[in-house]
Design brief:
The complex is a heterotrimer of chains A (289), B (427) and C (270).
Chain A (H helix, E strand, L loop, with lengths): L4 H28 L1 E4 L3 E5 L3 H8 L1 H33 L4 H15 L2 H11 L6 H8 L16 H26 L3 H10 L3 H12 L1 H17 L2 H6 L11 H11 L3 H27 L5
Antiparallel strand pairs in A: 1-2
Chain B lengths: L1 H16 L7 E8 L3 H17 L3 E8 L4 H10 L6 E5 L2 H7 L12 H5 L4 H5 L2 E2 L2 E2 L2 E7 L1 E5 H7 L7 H11 L12 E3 L6 H14 L17 H17 L11 H9 L3 E6 L2 H9 L5 E4 L18 E8 L6 H12 L1 H9 L9 H4 L10 H10 L9 H18 L4 H18 L2
Parallel strand pairs in B: 1-2, 1-3, 8-9
Antiparallel strand pairs in B: 3-11, 4-5, 6-11, 7-9, 7-10
Helix pairs in contact in B: 9-17, 10-17, 11-12, 17-18
Chain C lengths: L1 H16 L1 H9 L22 H5 L6 H32 L5 H13 L2 H15 L5 H26 L2 H9 L4 H30 L2 H6 L8 H6 L9 H34 L2
Helix pairs in contact in C: 2-12, 4-7, 4-9, 5-7, 7-9, 7-12, 8-9, 9-12
Classes of the chains: A mainly alpha (289), B alpha/beta (427), C mainly alpha (270).
């Protein structure tokens, strides 16, 4: 076997990655220090001006805060919900488990575009089902605005995002639950441990690795998520639900300021790389190498 | 294992490459917006064009107005995009300046074609010395009042700002008695940045406010009367609660739904609104009147300007078939075609002299009002940055004032400052 | 007793979880005049499948579907082809820089689409690939590749080396071993990966939104995403399109659910 074989095998995939991911990153870096017009392209260096514009923009800080909340809180809640569903599915109830398992996974398979629109209808202030139910139960007044209210818009989008993401957590947790050695529970049962104690002393510790990996992955994915916000609110009302990926589009393809957009891209990339580094550290503990 | 994969790959490659070969000249025609009736009419028009010009094939794509500017801007800067398309007439400045639109006055027969149209409407397709399209349909922004609700309350459509405010107050009601209002005096389009600006500016114009000075150098919408116009809306929202609380998320569809289901009594709209409402609730009637003027300007009620908008048909400057595109443009917009805006309710006002002066024009709903409004109305100032200023600066600040985050004066001053920077940067 | 209660609770929960889907389904069959009723109604006497045929008036839905199929299947094939080669190299060879390469792929999997979109737009613009199938397929392939390599790497690792060694001793070359021994064994894993790629490309919205514009290349998510705007508030037709669009992934998923989940668990956290 020749020494070059593995490199040859890697070559096509590597080419793709370099041309479509690495090159853009380098180009972005160049763009971010330049004056770039959509029509005429790059027209000279501007130093740190684009970055200054980004950091001076209050919208950037607002989006940064929104994105962090959206990613961290959203993922956290999705994990808890996913765990609850996984525990439910882990009860041995026979065939219904499989059927329900399938049904509970559907939100994950539905396209985010479709999901976003469906939630938008449900949350409509005047005609929506959610408002009707909540108002009938006396929890809110009829006509309460959700997506049109700067105070609640982001929460609504997060709700839809959680709805989309929890099945992934559920599937992972279920696999984790099923791999917990039965003997541990049996031993605990002998010791007379209550269900709650068994959950906290056996189940949770066993799920530690999978949940931390899920948390980081979930945060990274949600941090990158463009679809849900774009479809449901486009970052509005009054930018109250603006997140960084949507802001990149706003800078570059609405305001046509590619330089500023590139600078923001670089900032996002730096943030994400830090997060990815965490993920790497986490999984490499389990790697044999 | 490999074989089916290869087969599928080859299949998709062959799918990619098929269906292109033909000697016909192919024109891409993008039609933005339009109710079914209009889309149907345009398809017939394209069909009759192909009949008249064998050898030219036209592919009409129907798209919503959604993100029209972003999509076209990206397309044009990539050297792509359709050959022929309809946009708002205020695109002439931005897309003309950028070299995206072909100046149609370069065609030898333009001088004749020019004669078809009402002159001041044709003027809004002009930027500097060039005309960047042919007028399609004119729009004057007016106040649409829900007839059923007004009649039930026994009030007439408002003419002045205080009548407007009073009417909205009286029409805001709790109809089902659960302690929460479920019928509102006014609905605004807050979920569409452009749409919101188009609905605020008529109030500014009626009060004699300029968006920019005539030499296009200075932003002027923050004049005292501009602040008063914004304060009117802010007071209606914050003090009277007569504007739908969820308006920040509304686009056309929600407004239509609210109007049809009697949850909204008034909306600032244009000629499309009657038909749109009719499509959803057949038989629903409305009063269509001028946008109210400030109390002390009641004498100018019939002559104060509103916002004029127009749809125009333009040609991509990079089109490979300029001549054919021009033929199509004329066919879509000649006097014969324009008559359909009179004989069928297509949702906007005709723009040719012959159609507007025709006998049939007498019986068109609201036409006299629209013609009168259009005679006085003014378009957005023809500045290349105008669309960006309206959507990205004017709208966000106005919305913040309406919900009470900023005072109307502070909001407009800040917006004017940022807009002025954009104008001075002259990019 | 307890079991019945639990079962009941699970069913209620399922209905709750599927609320958005069920409401869309209900909307997709109502006539336009009954879509926005208050109080909301789940069924109406006038329900029919008419919106499903009406939606073709606005949207060239067949073209969009064909576009989506072409883009999704081509990207799936390309990712599988290049992905399995790379994964094979990672799992069966020791070579200098292996860790670095692994790192590159892993990192690029985390890349936000927002940070690469501008240069990609400019690149496709210059290469004349803006608004073409090729452009979109290229991008989808590249975006999906890292995760696919990662998944397949996990699968290949689970195949015992001894089987392959036996094949090598029998005189097969490494590549023949890959084709004749490893690929068949990894077939379930490859199936799951294929599903992942297909779904990823089929549902992808961000790149498709910015990198295509004409009807002849536009995919369904973008078609649906831009459907509602001024003058077009045909909610029932929109819902019908959404339902139709969701069916293929649902079928695919139900068919391959088990392997898919196994593969994902193996791939994401070993």
């Amino acid at each position: 076997m020749k020494k070059s074989t593995p490199y040859l095998l890697l070559l096509p995939a590597l080419l793709f990655t370099v041309f479509v991911l690495v090159y853009p990153l380098v180009q972005n870096l160049i763009n971010s220090f330049s004056d770039v017009s959509m029509i005429t392209g790059r027209s000279g260096w501007t130093g740190l001006k684009n970055y200054e514009h980004v950091f001076e923009d209050t919208l950037f800080w607002r989006s940064f805060r929104n994105t962090s909340v959206y990613a961290v809180v959203g993922t956290g809640v999705a994990l808890v919900v996913g765990l609850a569903f996984a525990l439910l599915l882990n009860l041995k109830l026979g065939k219904i488990n499989t059927v329900m398992g399938c049904l509970y996974t559907i939100p994950w398979i539905i396209s985010p575009v479709v999901a976003g629109f469906a939630w938008k209808w449900l949350l409509n202030d005047q005609f929506g089902v959610v408002n009707y139910w909540l108002a009938s139960a006396g929890i809110v007044k009829h006509g309460t605005t959700w997506l049109g209210n700067p105070g609640t818009a982001l929460i609504c989008v997060m709700l839809a995002r959680i709805w989309q993401f929890y099945p992934f957590a559920m599937v992972m947790f279920l696999a984790g639950l099923q791999s917990i050695p039965q003997e541990q529970y049996e031993a605990a049962a002998v010791d007379g441990a209550t269900m709650v104690r068994r959950f906290f002393y056996i189940t949770l510790p066993n799920l530690k690795t999978v949940s931390s990996v899920m948390l980081v992955l979930g945060v990274i994915w949600s941090f990158n998520d463009f679809n849900m916000v774009f479809v449901m609110t486009r970052g509005g009302p009054m930018n109250s639900s603006m997140v960084l990926p949507v802001l990149v589009r706003e800078f570059s393809f609405v305001q046509f300021d590619l330089g500023k957009g590139s600078a923001l891209s670089v900032v996002i990339f730096a943030l994400l790389t830090t997060l990815s580094y965490l993920y790497l550290k986490m999984i490499s503990r389990g790697e044999p190498t | 294992m490999k074989r089916p994969i290869l087969m599928a790959f080859l299949l998709s490659i062959s799918l990619l490459s098929c269906g292109k070969k033909s000697d016909d000249i192919v024109l891409q025609d993008w039609n933005f917006g339009g109710r079914p009736k209009l889309i149907e009419f345009l398809r017939q028009r394209v069909y009759s064009f192909e009949k008249l010009h064998p050898g030219i094939k036209v592919i009409q794509s129907d798209k919503s107005w959604n993100m029209i500017r972003e999509i076209l801007y990206a397309d044009f800067s990539a050297g792509a995009g359709p050959d022929v398309m309809n946009t708002h007439s205020n695109f002439a400045a931005e897309f003309g300046e950028a070299g995206f639109y072909y100046p149609v006055n370069k065609f030898p027969d333009f001088e004749q074609v020019k004669q078809w149209y009402i002159p001041h409407l044709l003027e809004s397709t002009r930027y500097k010395d060039n005309y960047y399209g042919l007028p399609s349909s004119a729009i004057a922004f007016v106040l649409c009042c829900n007839k059923e609700l007004f009649d039930k309350e026994g009030i007439a459509p408002p003419k002045t700002w205080s009548q407007f405010r009073e009417a909205a107050k009286r029409l805001t009601k709790d109809t089902d008695g659960d302690g929460v209002p479920d019928q509102f005096g006014l609905v605004l389009m807050g979920g569409d940045k452009g749409g919101f600006a188009y609905r605020m500016i008529p109030l500014f114009f009626k009060a004699g406010v300029n968006v920019m000075s005539d030499d296009l150098k200075k932003i002027e919408f923050n004049s005292p009367m501009g602040v008063a116009a914004l304060k009117l809306i802010a007071d209606m929202y914050q003090v009277d609660h007569s504007i739908t609380p969820g308006f920040l998320a509304y686009t056309h569809s929600e407004i239509n739904d609210l109007f049809c289901s009697n949850k909204a009594a008034m909306s600032i709209e244009g000629p499309w609104f009657r038909g749109m409402v009719g499509d959803k609730s057949p038989g629903k009637d409305m009063y269509v009147v001028s946008v109210p003027v400030p109390d002390n300007m009641i004498a100018q009620y019939d002559t104060a300007p509103t916002l004029q908008d127009m749809v125009m048909y333009s040609i991509n400057a990079r089109s490979k078939h300029l001549k054919e595109a021009w033929e199509l443009l004329k066919h879509l917009r000649n006097e014969e075609a324009d008559m359909f805006w009179i004989t069928q309710d297509l949702g906007a006002t005709a723009t040719t002299k012959s159609a507007l002066n025709s006998r049939e024009a007498q019986s068109v709903n609201d036409l006299q009002l629209y013609i009168n409004e259009l005679n006085h109305a003014r378009p957005w100032p023809p500045h290349p940055q105008m669309i960006a200023i309206a959507s990205n600066i004017f709208t966000p600040y106005c919305q913040r004032a309406v919900v009470g985050e900023l005072s109307p004066k502070a909001a407009l001053d800040q917006a004017a400052r940022e807009a002025q920077e954009l104008v001075d940067a002259k990019k | 007793m307890k079991k019945t209660l639990l079962t009941l609770a699970m069913i209620v929960l399922a209905l709750l979880v599927l609320l958005p889907v069920l409401w869309t389904l209900s909307t997709s069959m109502k006539p336009l005049s009954e879509v926005n009723r208050y109080p909301p109604e789940w069924t109406s006497s006038a329900m029919s499948l008419k919106p499903y045929s009406d939606m073709f008036f606005y949207l060239p839905f067949l073209t969009y579907t064909l576009n989506s199929l072409i883009v999704a299947s081509s990207s799936t094939i390309l990712t599988l082809l290049f992905g399995s080669l790379a994964a094979f190299a990672f799992s069966r060879f020791a070579f200098a820089g292996k860790q670095v390469f692994l790192l590159i792929f892993l990192l690029s999997q985390m890349l936000p689409g927002a940070s690469v979109i501008i240069p990609l737009f400019q690149l496709l613009q210059k290469a004349g690939l803006y608004d073409t199938y090729y452009g979109l397929i290229l991008i989808h392939t590249a975006v999906l590749l890292p995760f696919v390599i990662w998944l397949l790497y996990g699968f290949f690792q689970t195949i015992p080396r001894e089987i392959e060694d036996a094949a090598l001793i029998d005189g097969c070359s490494r590549m023949t071993a890959l084709r004749k021994v490893i690929l068949p064994l990894a077939l379930p894993g490859i199936g799951a990966t294929a599903l992942f790629s297909f779904l990823g490309s089929w549902n992808e919205f961000f790149f498709a939104l910015i990198l295509t514009s004409s009807d002849s290349t536009r995919t369904i998510p973008v078609g649906i995403g831009l459907f509602v705007g001024e003058y077009l508030d045909v909610w029932n037709q929109m819902a019908a399109a959404a339902i139709l669009f969701s069916i293929p992934p649902l079928i695919l998923f139900t068919l391959t659910r088990k392997t898919f989940i196994k593969g994902l668990v193996a791939g994401a956290c070993k």
